[in-house]
Amino acid sequence: MAFRALSPSAPRGGSSPSRRPAPPADGGPEQILAERYARGEIDDEEYRRRLATLRGTRPGSAPSPPTP
Questions:
Q1: What pLDDT, in 10s, does the model give residues 4-55?
Q2: Dihedral of the CA atoms 14, 17, 34, 58 (nearest 10)?
Q3: Which pLDDT score is estimated for 8?
Q4: Which of 7, 10, 33, 58 falls between 20 and 30 A from 39, CA-CA?
Q5: Residue 62 or residue 38, greater confidence
Q6: At what angle are helices 44-55 and 29-38 packed, to 10 degrees?
Q7: In this structure, how many other beta carbons lie within 10 angstroms of the beta carbon of residue 38?
C-alpha cells in the first residue's frame, strides 16, 4: 500500500488539468438535440422548434443553436 502512494501513477489530489471527467451518459434531451444539430442531422429551424417544444415555449422564443 505504501508503494502505491509513492508510485508516480498514483492519483494526486484530483484529476490533472488536461483530463476532464467524461460527461454523463445521459445528458438529457437538450444535449442530445444539440449533438444532433452539431452533426448536421437537423437544421437551425428544426433545432429551434424542437428546443422550444422541450422547454414548453413558443418556437420563436428559443435561443440560437449552439456553436460547434
A1: 555 555 555 555 555 655 555 567 999 999 999 999 999 999 999 999 999 9
A2: 80
A3: 55
A4: 58
A5: 38
A6: 180
A7: 14
As given in the structure block, the three cell numbers for residue 66 are 449552439
Instruction: List helix spans (H) across 1-68.
Output: 2-6, 29-38, 44-55
Q: Max alpha carbon distance in the chain (Å)?
A: 61
The pLDDT score that the predictor gives to residue 43 is 96
Q: In 3-state terms, the chain is what percent helix, strand and coil (to 5)?
A: 45, 0, 55
Report d(CA 33, CA 46) in Å as an integer: 10
| Residues ≥6 apart with Cβ < 8 Å to 57 | none
